[in-house]
Amino acid sequence: MSYKTIIGLEIHVELKTNTKIFCSCPAEFGGEENTKCCPVCLGLPGSLPVINKKVIEFAIRAGLALNCNINERSRMDRKNYFYPDLPKAYQISQYEIPLCKEGYIEIETENGSKKIRIRRIHIEEDTGKSIHLEDGISLLDYNRSGVPLIEIVTEPDMNSSKEVHSFLENLKSILEYIDISDCKMEQGSLRCDININVKNKDKNIETNIVELKNLNSFKAAVRAIDYEEKRHIDLLEHNRNTDKETRRWNDIENKTMKMRSKENIEDYRYFPDPDLVYVVVDRKWIDKVRKELPELPREKVERFKRYYNLSEYNARILASSKNIAKFFEDTCNEVENSKLVSNWIITEVLRRIKEEGIEIDKMKINHKDFASLMRFIMNKTISNSMAKKIFREMIITGKAPQEIIEERGLKQITDNETINGIIQEVLKSNSKSIEDYRNGKKKALGFLIGQVMKETGGEADPQIVNKLIKEALS
């Protein structure tokens, strides 16, 4: 049987404005429960919302960065539903006329570049938060109620968990570049709902669309998609179908579980919000926001390839994060060896910060310290292997490389006479290896070089050792 998985996404992005969308309460994360709310975000009778202009600007910025058309006239609507953490029993959102529409993001797949269409981007308010205790009691925190969001809705253009992961990584990178959200999934700043079903192409039948919620990481999204894909295929193979439902991902049991039957659009009873006027943006404002957009990831990749002579792979990794790209360019301004800097960031820096669980801009060292380390490698003061040990200590202690080199006496031995003396001692003790080398066993050379490096504590220049041993053996 031939199957096709069909996936569309709904991504909620929390905007990092100072205040909420319809009132002056702070929009920051955390704090004591129910201390950052007022009659407006609590939905008390008689309170009136006033829209935050910065929210509209951030949404326009997102729309332009994601290749959308901007509606110069859009409308706020009421989406009616009851949940305990939604005190008004409706959410102010956009339905019929969103602010942004018809955009796209290009992703790289095994078959080349693929365009994922974006149906719409609209602005809305967030709800409060329910806290469920073990004894069955639920508490409500309304600090998050009224925090501004954009919802990005894609067309069902993705066909695998790999494509979804690539899309989300690209989207997160763009949102960080344009500086409208911190995109911290663990704090709920970036939340993803997945709509998925599977089609049997041979029989031309497909399962009902299921919505997956509560996905708090890209890894969880991938695992949930893979699970649902297998579940839907199994249903089709047994001539069954899934309910049109909303399911949640259980990270502990590694499976999806039914939450409720999925609502239809009619159930929300959308209608224009009578307390808010139309959102009207003129072309001058849109053009001003467009001019203020920074260089975006895809543009940066092309510039890195052209200006720094990087490979496509290296350029993509370095441009994937605004902070990584900045660290790379700041270092290159100090050191004229972009290839060395690029390779070191990709292999050592990113590995070390992953082990430490920190972001690159939170390291104890700055780009100037890192540039100094690169210069010590370039002028052969230290070897590459010594540099790795020094960098590990730099990350942990925050010390400059010069300080660590002096403390540990780690300067590389480059004096030919000194190295030659050690080579002669090694050769005297390893006549069998000399004989093996002369009989064509090339591994013997590697052994002898290793012995010299051992005698020097790894401080001899490997290239000089290699050259001098070959000369001695000939």
Q: How would you sum up this structure, described in words?
A:
With 474 residues, the protein is an alpha+beta fold. It has three domains: 3-285, no CATH class; 295-408, no CATH class; 416-473, Arc Repressor Mutant, subunit A (Orthogonal Bundle), CATH 1.10.10. It has 17 helices and 17 strands. It has helices spanning 39-42, 53-65, 161-177, 218-237, 265-268, 283-291, 297-307, 312-319, 322-332, 338-356, 367-378, 384-397, 401-408, 416-428, 431-438, 443-455, 462-473, and strands at residues 3-14, 69-70, 73-74, 77-80, 90-93, 100-109, 112-125, 129-132, 138-141, 148-154, 190-200, 205-206, 210-215, 245-250, 255-261, 271-272, 279-280. The strands form four sheets. Strands 1, 2, 6, 7, 10, 11, 12, 13, 14 and 15 form a ten-stranded mixed β-sheet that branches. The chain has a three-stranded antiparallel β-sheet with strand order 5-4-16, with no helix packed on it. Strands 3-17 form a two-stranded antiparallel ribbon. The longest helix is centred in the middle third of the chain and has 20 residues, at 218-237. It is elongated and about 95 Å long. It starts with a strand and ends with a helix.
